[in-house]
């Protein structure tokens, strides 16, 4: 069975495939349909690129100048594994006239190294350190799409959304924080058609896994603790780590644990019912059934009743962010914030907590006026349309790309709605 993440199946003619892809790309940009032989992963990426407003004749913008770039990447976790990347990929890149590139979780290139001639060619399309190659900025490309999908991917020729990138082929794999599982960025190999081979994708994936192993060895050993830990930020289904087990919870069970962790004194059944359900007609027996299932999942002794409560303290990533904000540790709070709390939840109490936490952090970021922290929020999925943050970022980092994005946002958010534009009957 052909691997859908590999650009060319065995025996395929690269030149013929590139010609067909160019024709398919033109069809998509003209009429919006995706013909064969475009892979599903690429077709989906093209559609996301179009929805993000990326044009096929666009180009990447350099967002981090030399000063900002140097300090930012010096503090980035991936700086610790750059020697490993260079050892495993650097010689391959130089000998094959390819490039080794590393981006952060927002698709910003931190390092681009390799063959000098290839680097000069890549510089013509702003494939340079400091440039943003997120999928939402420049469309389909291996490092940006790998970060967007959180999985290794190969992009060949006219599978790239922007035309000036279509002479290139690249393969990239995300790199995760071994402790939290968060995406730190991606490692990428970029060059010619010869990279459109399963081995290049497997190679870059192996390098990413080696980097994660190295980070795990370099990470400080956390002190031994028996305190259960609840991870609920940026996830629709929370994860509880307790007694050496990692338990993935359903959405409803995630909501229950988040609320009980915040109320160690416990909640009465009617309080928990109102906190979880918008519909006031939901009977108490529904909640009792959910709690019975949760008790079986957690095991004996952790969940008590009358009132419903956790029998031991549970440390949550929500409380970590809140404590750091309370003490003024804004950078630490931002680093611990992996995204909105249970973003798909509609439980009234969870919605209120989600809004309060996000508003508190973004307010602190705006007040701090740190360009890197503001940029991280603005380029995250939850901050891409945050007008106040983009205005704050433009005030401290007024690059052309930031000003252009701000202008587009102000135009979109202040334009009258369609019904307001209709002439009176």
Automatic annotation (TrEMBL):
One GO biological process this protein is involved in is: phosphorelay signal transduction system
UniProt keywords, alphabetically? DNA-binding, Transcription, Transcription regulation
Q: Pfam families from the entry?
A: GAF
Which intervals hold domain OmpR/PhoB-type? 244-310
Q: Which SMART domains match?
A: Trans_reg_C
Coiled-coil blocks: none
A GO molecular function for this record?
DNA binding
Q: Does the keyword Transcription regulation apply?
A: yes
Is DNA-binding a UniProt keyword of this protein?
yes
Please give the superkingdom of this protein's source. Bacteria
Q: What is the official name of this protein in its record? A: Transcriptional regulator
Tell me what organism the protein belongs to: Streptomyces dysideae
